Amino acid sequence: MTTAPKLAAGLSAIAADYDALLCDVWGVIHNGRESFPEACGALARYRAERGPVILISNSPRPHGPVVAQLDALGVPREAWSELVTSGDATRLLLAARAPGPAWKIGPDRDDALYAGLDIEFSDLDQARFISVTGPYDDENDEPADYRDRFVTAVERDLELLCANPDIVVQRGSKLIYCGGALAQLYESLGGRVTMAGKPFPAIYELSLAKAERALGRPLDGKRVLCIGDGLPTDIRGANARGLDVLFVANGIHGGETVGPDGLNVPAVEDLLRQDGLAATYAIADLVW
Fold first, then answer.
1. pTM exceeds 0.90, yes or no
2. Residues 202 and 89 sit within 8 Å (Cβ to Cβ)
3. Distance, CA of 248 to CA of 89 (rounded, Å)
4. CA-based torsion, 251, 160, 143, 141: positive or negative
5. Enclosing domain of residue 107
6. Confidence category of residue 266, pLDDT binned at 50, 70, 90
7. N or C: where does the chain have the smaller number of CB atoms within 10 Å of the terminal CB?
8. Which residues pair with 243 in a beta bridge?
9. 59 close to 66: Cβ distance less than 8 angstroms
10. 72 and 97 inside one domain
């Protein structure tokens, strides 16, 4: 697999080659504290001139609350056509496991994931499976804090359903742990893990279907561009689907790949090579 990406001066340099974009959210168009005007402007211009922009997020919540978050952060509605979240895809998995009960791990703000699904909740001793959206306190918790309880759950052969495969995301200038970090620990202990977000197929199937409806005609996969900053999620997911991908380096890997002089191309190539991944293009930050 070729790992060396072509450098993209901006989205405008490659936009004509694609009929639709599947674009990551956190790390590409905002950092959890503020939106990135140039990235939002690039997506808005692509949408106006070329085709649909489907935002594809590993947020564990359904898309409704995430739309409200984007509005609050100043992401213009003109910058995107549709939004698909890991929460949307995970609700299908949860419905199949209702009524549970489930041992729920995650902050209260993620409870919209369960609305209308008739899922019952219990402590670990009574649970039939585990549902994870993230740590209870993502500002302070670490995966190791859950280890002892996870050992017990693995002994009971409980399945862990993870609504957010991200390992970390950037909130402001700080990296915080996500549900994927807990799922990673659980799997390392021998536990069974099921996920629907990036890089797994379910969220891409939903996203491509929405892109095709927005385009109004059949969509050629060779003319779909994925945009993202996460190697294990955005890049791996695009590679698994055989889709072209634009790697935005100045996201969660920014400390390793972007310096005072801009994009560190050898560092980008090394990161991709280490994970056996490929990016079609690379850019420091998403711009037009």
1. no
2. yes
3. 24
4. positive
5. 89-195
6. confident
7. N
8. none
9. yes
10. no
